[in-house]
Amino acid sequence: MSATETTTEPAVAPRGPQSLGAVFEDYRARIRGGDVGALPALAGVIVLVLVFTVLSGTQFTNAFNFANLVLQGSAYAVFAMGLVFVLLLGEIDLSAGYTGGVGAAVVGKLILDQNLNWVLALIGGLLFGALVGLVIGLLVSKLGVPSFVVTLAFFLALQGVLLLMTGAGGTIPYRDSHLLAIMNKNMPLWLGWAFAGLTVIAYAALGFSRRLQRQRAGLPTPTILVWVLKSIAFAAVLIAATAYLSKERSRNVFLASLKGVPIVIVIVAGLLVVLTFLLTRTAWGRHVYAVGGNAEAARRAGINVARVKISCFMMCSMLASVGGVLLASRTNSVNPQTGGSDVLLFAVGSAVIGGTSLFGGRGRVLDGILGAVVITVIVNGMTLQGQSQGRVYMITGLVLLLAASVDAVSRRRAAASGRV
Amino acid sequence: MSARAGTHTVNSRPVLSNPSPAVPGRSTRKVLSMSVTQTERPPVGADTPILTLRGIEKSFGAVHVLRGVDLDVRAGQVTALVGDNGAGKSTLIKGVAGIYGFDAGEYLFEGKPVAVHNPRDANALGIEVVYQDLALCDNLDVVHNMFLGRELTASGLLNEATMETRARETLDGLSVRTLQSVRTPVASLSGGQRQTVAIARAVLWNSKIVILDEPTAALGVAQTEQVLALVRRLADKGLAVVLISHNMNDVMQVADDIAVLYLGAMVAQVKTADVTHSQVVELITTGRATNGTKGADA
């Protein structure tokens, strides 16, 4: 009567190290299953760089423009990294741009009017961001107002706040040398190299220790070759970028020397590491993915869904404040357009182009940076070509549409492959 | 089966001694005889039921949903809970799981009366429910889903290695051979595999009673077989399993005990070996059985 089977076979038979071929096969299966990850963004960057190199030659590829790209893209990247948290929930934050603008204005005012130390002023800006995120999060999770509407309201209101704060003069100047240095100064060459070296070592060490941990626990581990190849590729990219940024890129060396890794890179890289760590190595990060994937399942598993949502909105708004300060540092002031016009749309576009799903549950912090690179290369390359702003927007819109379609199609594939 | 059916002894089931209008009086005799089989069965091992419900009443406003329901759930056995739509199966299960409280009646766990006010109380007792929609996160892998909301951490960080090891141990312990890798996202699993993950999650926490709500409803033939085999293994490992199902074939195949709800009353809880397929269907649809029991002369 019963269907008792007394099989004692283990669930997974082979437990030795996986071969390189097996790892590659796993990866291919994942992609075919709809988990395309960073591939479209990486392919996009390569294609775009090739196209613009052919069209513009050294005008595009020179070291000066490369550093310029980094500076242009870093603010978008920070906004986008914040938006990843909200998009992971399947929500949206339309107010992030102006939250950044007002956050930067708060920092400027605190220094200008209150004579605050720049560190304290920055903390003030972050607290402002946290407050905005808290209110948005409460309205969305407790009251149940759609995030689209709540953040649209905040978008309008904060635009007004920024207009009032900048006042008749129209700008809040940034004069603090530390804040200006972020976007306008480079690290000394040795520091840039030391930074790159340490990052490579940390990356390799982290990968090795994780491998060791799995091996000790008797879990299937990819062959050591995977770790070696990954570390070498990471080191190669970082060393090439550092070397290029260490080149003299001033047009007139006698007027001013311009070389070294821009300081903002350290900030963006630091945020990338810390936020990725939070999202992938802590229970909170796991809960963010769970809420985005299936909020009801998360609730039944005992996860406080409201708290997770609020924390994500706070994270997004705080990072928006940081992004706002970067924008202000680049233009040396806050004006009524700081964080306005295309900032938010480029930031959302960056996250989506990078591979973060608009449907929630899928995405990484790195996506924000990858997408920001794509968008910045488009804007930078087309502007160098002398294309009008109108065409730049049109192409950017097309790329975003393409990315969103890739997202939708890969999601459908994932759903289809789910019912084998 | 050593028990003698047809031996008329006084049955203590309140629903049978006070037949409600829903249970016509003339059916009482046959139902009685089957209940006797149950109550007179000689003790097999630790035969005290792990979960005992007596005289459970539940109303939603004017609607009397459960009328003096009795239920015994034993460790190492699969107890099927059957009944037509609206018979009160879900209400009974949700009450057991602590989603809402019963209005009246005894709730005994391991022989002791307990108070279960919310799902956490039920979990603390070792009662896990696998709902029909499984409540899995498609975007997370098998390990993440199994530990969802109860992640193991070491100094604040997720302890992936330990979680993966324990997930594998649990799956191996259930002799699950259908999962290639525990790091596969649930989105890419078949319906049967998802059910397996949901069940494995329920037994991961040393639970004592696993309640399965229609585990085979959405599955194909081969996958149904896999899940039923898994259900059987759970019981063989000493867990008490409550199986809610509309599929009589599944029930006859895997259950040790069949409890039949009819319009909110428990009309019978019988050994599967003592009844035929058609008798169970009759109990479900009319609340009574007309033929003698199959095990009567066994």
From TrEMBL, chain A:
UniProtKB keywords: Cell inner membrane, Cell membrane, Membrane, Sugar transport, Transmembrane, Transmembrane helix, Transport
Pfam families cross-referenced by the UniProt entry: BPD_transp_2
Topology with respect to the bilayer: Multi-pass membrane protein
GO MF term (any one): transmembrane transporter activity
InterPro entries in the record: ABC_transp_permease
Main localization of the protein described in the UniProt heading: membrane
Domain of life of the organism encoding this protein: Bacteria
Spans through the membrane: 36-57, 69-89, 118-140, 147-170, 190-212, 224-245, 260-279, 308-328, 343-361, 368-386, 392-410
GO cellular component: plasma membrane
Cell compartments where the protein resides: Cell membrane
Role this protein plays: Part of the binding-protein-dependent transport system for D-xylose. Probably responsible for the translocation of the substrate across the membrane.
Name of the molecule in the record: Xylose transport system permease protein XylH
Organism ancestry: Bacteria, Bacillati, Actinomycetota, Actinomycetes, Propionibacteriales
